[in-house]
Specification:
This is NlpC/P60 family protein. The chain is an alpha+beta fold and 138 residues long. The protein has a single domain, classed as endopeptidase domain like (from Nostoc punctiforme) (endopeptidase fold (from Nostoc punctiforme), Alpha-Beta Complex). The chain is built from 4 helices and 8 strands. The strands form 2 sheets. The chain has a 6-stranded antiparallel β-sheet, with helices on one face. The longest helix has 14 residues. The two termini are 26 Å apart. The relative contact order is 0.21. The mean pLDDT is 84.
Length: 138
């Protein structure tokens, strides 16, 4: 988990896009830029608040259809994991290994979580790989 450990403890910040603070998309964007050299859009101004789960879910759906993300059956490190918050698919984690993800934990900070725990496994919606990483689609 060496690469993921570098991000643990980054504070949660609505619309955050740096090590000074991130939301879940900001964390994915930071990791992709630093670890993979892949620039992800910031989505600045695309949603009013991270609590607007419907707006965030619409952005995610649009990226699935028109964007560079493709579903994968077996997640690899750095694939994005999508989870429901309530009825909306609006939370993203970054796959670390077969059991762990890096994500922003609510209003606290970035941490590593067990994706097999009931809290996460019951809300899991799918894994996605960026086209610049090479994709073997479902």
């Amino acid at each position: 988990m060496s690469w993921a450990s570098r991000y643990v403890g980054i504070p949660q910040a609505d619309f955050g896009r740096s090590e000074m603070g991130c939301d879940c998309w900001g964390l994915a964007r930071l990791v992709y830029a630093r670890e993979l050299g892949i620039g992800l859009p910031s989505y600045d101004g695309a949603y009013v608040s991270p609590d607007e789960h419907a707006e965030v879910a619409a952005l995610i759906s649009g990226a699935e259809v028109d964007g560079p993300w493709h579903p994968v059956a077996t997640p690899e490190p750095f694939d994005l994991l999508l989870f429901r918050r309530g009825r909306f698919r609006s939370h993203i984690g970054i796959n670390v290994d077969t059991r762990h993800m890096l994500h922003m934990d609510g209003t606290e900070q970035a941490r590593i979580a067990d994706i097999r725990a009931p809290r996460w496994s019951s809300r899991f919606c799918g894994a996605y790989r960026h086209v610049e990483r090479g994709v073997q689609c479902l």
